[in-house]
Amino acid sequence: MANFQEHILRKQAAASLASGNLAQAESTCRQILSRRKNDLTALQVMGVIAFERGQFADAASYLRKCLTQQPKDPMLHCNLAKAWAGQGCLDRAIASFDKALRLDKAHADAVSGKADLLERRGDYDKARNLLAPLVAAGNEVASMAIVFAKLQQRAGRPNDAIALVQRHLDKPDLGSSTRRQLLFVLAKAFETAGQFDRAFEAYTQGNSVDARPFDADAYAQKIKHLISTFSAQNLATLPRAADRSELPIFVVGMPRTGSTLVERIIDRHPKAHGAGEIAVMAEMVGSLMFELDSYSPYPDCIADLTQEAADRLGRAYLDQLRRTGRGAVRVVDKALRNYENLGLISRLVPGARVIDCRRDPLDTCLSCYMQTLAPRKHPYASDLRNLGLVYRQYERLMRHWQDVLDLPMMTVSYEELVADQEGVSRAILDFAGLEWDDQCLRFYESQRDVMTLSYDQVRRPIYNTSVGRHQHFEAHLGPLKEALGEGGPRTG
Q1: What does the pLDDT read at residue 14?
Q2: Contact yes or no for 97/114 (Cβ under 8 A)
Q3: How far apart are CA 175 and CA 251, in angstroms?
Q4: CA within 20 to 30 Å of 225's CA: 58, 59, 212, 441, which one?
């Protein structure tokens, strides 16, 4: 009977995972693991859940437990490789893909996964050598075609990339994620070839795949509620943590505004470290109601913040940053959505600095539309109107924080950084309380691997070809311009 019950629970966990109900899948898996701590199915599902949530270290831990039971399963090695890659550990990720290939030299996920990582770190020849024989023989799968099409574009052959991608888009058995990636690669190839209308059509098709519902009115109400909850009057009554450590620098803003570039400039300083998009503060927000033993969800539970809780939570955040920073005196937290959390941040880490990254709103929103931002995390990004509305709410909230918070804040314009790299870089370092170091001008020489969508941009010296990108697509931007407000300010 026990085995039958566990079988039913496994099926329930798999069904919940397939439907996207991660919380239910996790709850079911924990039931299984409480009875059988090494249950392979439950551990695999927990690994997928952790990966989907961006908890890559946890995902790696679950997958390594799976591999102790099935060390010759190439797919498990591939999944572990993806978990390593999520943490930015590309050497470990490539090593895991190599283990999979030793078990099965033709394993498609291993070949395409390794090629993708080689392309990301700039080892273009190695990536091409891995894929070219398969493409020449017509034996590549769609995931390989995606990487090889990127390599073709880099080599100045966008038309070859277009032909390769279109060959795979005709196949009926593509998964939604793969189809979406193919369409975005196709769109970029059309754009590179100067076929801007066809590019926009492909971007639109890509955004329609796996699009998620987004309630712009509800988001506006959320921002309104944050503003009223963290009013100047309410903030004056809230305790703040005693530790005023200057360790944290929060880089916030919309995606595609040069935030990775700003982080890398600071990271190149010998006394600083870029921690990337860490989820620590978002997790604190998610659990704050329970941490404060409050009956009210966030943000209303902030009324129950005590001095003891502020000190405890502030220490927990700083301890995590110190572990990540490995002795650095400044650590950059680049979780951009922390712009929503600056009220709480001002109470828990009052010594923090904030850098708000800005870019022309049309370029910002269009670039979001033209990137494969995860629909689950960015449901607004598949619709130009929603992008414009979210951008204006972000501006609205940042104006409020600038009015009511005493956190040091700096606005960095992407366009100004591109036009005057040294001048703006010096201002960033001065704001961070760090002496100037010439290495900060050579951010592209960093040996750190970057897994954000800007991985390619920060491997090169600063360039200005992305400034004014929207001008090629003016005919398609009516909904975006309307949402942003015709004639409104272009720099916020």
Answers
A1: 87
A2: yes
A3: 35
A4: 212
